[in-house]
Amino acid sequence: MKVKAVSGFSKKSKAEKVTWIVHHFLNDNPKLKAILEQYWNPDPTVQKLHDDFTENTLTNFYLPFGIAPNFLINGDLLAVPMVIEESSVVAAASNAAKFWMDRGGFQAEVISTEKNGQVHINFKGTPESLIRYFEAIKPKLLERIDPIQKNMKKRGGGLKELVLIDGTKKLDGYYQLHASFETLDAMGANFINSCLEQIAQAFENEAIDHEVFQKEGIFPEVVMSILSNYVPECLVKAWVECPVDALANNGMDGQAFAENFLRAVEIAKIEPRRAVTHNKGIMNGIDAVVLATGNDFRAVEAGIHAYASRNGSYSSLTEASIQNDLFTFKIEIPMALGTVGGLTSLHPLVQVAHAILQNPNAMELMKITAVVGLAQNFAALRSLITTGIQKGHMKMHLMNILNQLQASESEKQKTIQHFKDRVISHSQVVKFIETLRN
Ligand code: MEV
Q1: Hey, whose CA ends up nearest to atom 7 of ligand 1?
Q2: Hey, which residues are catalytic here?
Q3: Which CATH number fits domain 115-227: 3.40.220.10, 3.30.70.420, 3.20.20.30, 3.30.56.10?
Q4: Which tens digit of pLDDT belongs to each residue from 158-167?
Q5: 56-85 pLDDT, tens per residue?
Q6: Is 163 exposed, middle or buried (0-12, 13-18, 19+ CB in 10 A)?
Q7: From CA 43, how far away is CA 62, in angstroms rounded?
């Protein structure tokens, strides 16, 4: 067996790393090595920037950076950058944007902007002593983060509240310091984690000499300190509305469309298996904007899915209603986004994305992102209750199939023409290309 373990890998140069991986895991295949190298940026300065984003970079992994135009949001017309590999997502968002642009556009509003984090603590002594200690020590804990908070406070942000929570009913000896923050235009992860670690250190150190613990001889211990990606106090909502008649669609009259649409949302409300796919469609749009704008899509995903379960059962993130012939469709989601710091000031394409969006602040970006999620859900449900999803999906996927088959430009044109009014499937496309080639 070849030796595949390695020490000091991160110290190797990029060329050495590529050679190592190709030798040990790719049988020295020159083609695969060439592909890794083909995706290097020809400008070494640009490449260096990307190399430095993370450890052990071998090459760049491209994803399409697309645009969904015609998003009318609170009266402003925007073109939204989206980074996503799934072929039909940008087309669907664009269709929904156009549909609603002609019906008054989207409305959006930020409900709250509070983020949070916790210092998780073990304490086996009497709860009263910990409560007394916390009240006594709190000013010192706040003092400790003064230097970190200085700039954030100047701009109106910083720590808002620090409370001790008794979690012993759920887990023996478990307490937490729950901290809430306003981080303005920063996503705030580094700021929050730095504050929490300072608070935790002071909390543990000061306890050693504090009189309340001397009698029992039992001291609190910090287990860990970290922000929470569950941010139900950092909420945004977006909605559309129009007369039911204006929804006439794909041969379906407005009333029938609205009723079927409502039913589709109701099913996603009560059936978790459907809700997960329903919400996945929403996340198609949200993740694409979050990625394009250099934000943390894992954090956003985790927080939003947790919010979808807040009532004890996983459920739809969107709601629809018909009242007095007015159709309303809305979304409410938590989201911690930043427009300064992190990748937003480093990745040149992220900067372009922000510029396309007219350099929004964090609250504006929350609104745009929520709107795209709502639009994506509208587009998916509209297809599902009318033509079915595959028609549009396979139309967009046709080019991927043709590229897989290495079709020439003229073969592509003939295939697109042929399948204009026919059902597209992988096998039918293969068959058609074979007949062309024979
Ligand atoms: C596909 O990526 C997303 C959909 O499945 C969403 C949905 O079913 O609502 C079309």
Answers
A1: 278
A2: 86, 280, 296, 393
A3: 3.30.70.420
A4: 999 999 999 9
A5: 999 999 999 999 999 999 999 999 999 999
A6: exposed
A7: 16
